[in-house]
Amino acid sequence: MQRDVYVAGAAMTSFGKFVDRPLASLTEEAVSAAMADCGATADAVDAIFFANAAAGLLTGQEMIRGQTALRDLPELLGKPIVNVENACASGSTAFNLACMAINAGSADVVLAIGAEKLSHHDRARSFAAFEAGVDVEHPPFANTGEKSMFMDIYAQMTRDYMKASGATVEDFARVAVKSHDNAALNPKAQFRRPVTLDEVLDSRLVSDPLRLLMCSPIGDGAAALVVASDAGMVRLGATPGVRVLASVVLSGTGAPDQISPVTLASRRAYEQAGIGPSEVDVVELHDAAAPAELMAFEELGLCEPGQARELLASGHTAIGGRCCVNPSGGLLSKGHPVGATGAAQLVELTEQLRGAAGERQSGTPRVALAENAGGWIGGGPAAASITLLGV
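-> structure tokens emitted (391 positions)
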């Protein structure tokens, strides 16, 4: 990073199904709380990056999503508002662009917002929105209309991973149990009830070997971050705390033998930050299905291939473990409002680094990593984002 960049303010709404609550209401709540978190006024904000993935498909609102979502905060209208869409990585991409604006010297205080309303009276509309995240001319699977195509994609990845690593369905169920345990400590999580291993294994089969409790839910929510330079922190009257060590966004190539863009982005982020994977203390990663936690942990270089399940069993990735994974409950249990997910990961990590995560606080972390991936092209994710934060 050319200039020091800080997370000055961070906040999110609860995640859940709010069928009758408009996107603007969710956005207003998150943005107002993030600005209050650092004492920011509208006058202090130079630019806004607003992330949303599915509003066009679910409500027909295209082109000016940020402007309409911020209509209940008229003091922010008139600012530069850039609308960002990058599948499930939309929120982290908005954050990346906010950091780029500060690094370019074009802004000193920037709002990065992710907001999504996926629940709908017609559930088929919600599933159809997910289908748009693949190459529609070359889809990996036929659309069944009964579930997200992404669960079929994750199921195939899971079967391949089981063959390569020796991981079992019980290992994936343990991921789900851990995620629900963590979410029970998170007042903003969509699912706050712990579950047992048997409950996970006995839940409905979605796409073999994935069970319902191994799959992230449809939901709604918003998250916002106030990002600032040194000069911006002075403008806000805020004390520097959480610093952005690296922010990388890459696309997948679509090639069948491609190296995962998650791996490539993480390598670039470690290099940018001047650290190694062993220095990471807490991680929020993209577990749209439970097996993805184990796969991504390995792709991020946080352990050797095939070792993730052993580290899960040892408590290494639990709250208080050496490298805690998804203390928020992750996508599995905190929820996955697509455009808000990446921003919400960064809200959680900011709270962890501040020591302000309450019952789910994992020690005194110094370095935090967020991995947010989205869409599907060829044989892998269409977008991958890695963010490293530190204190």
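The domain at 133-214+246-390 is CATH 3.40.47.10 (Peroxisomal Thiolase; Chain A, domain 1).
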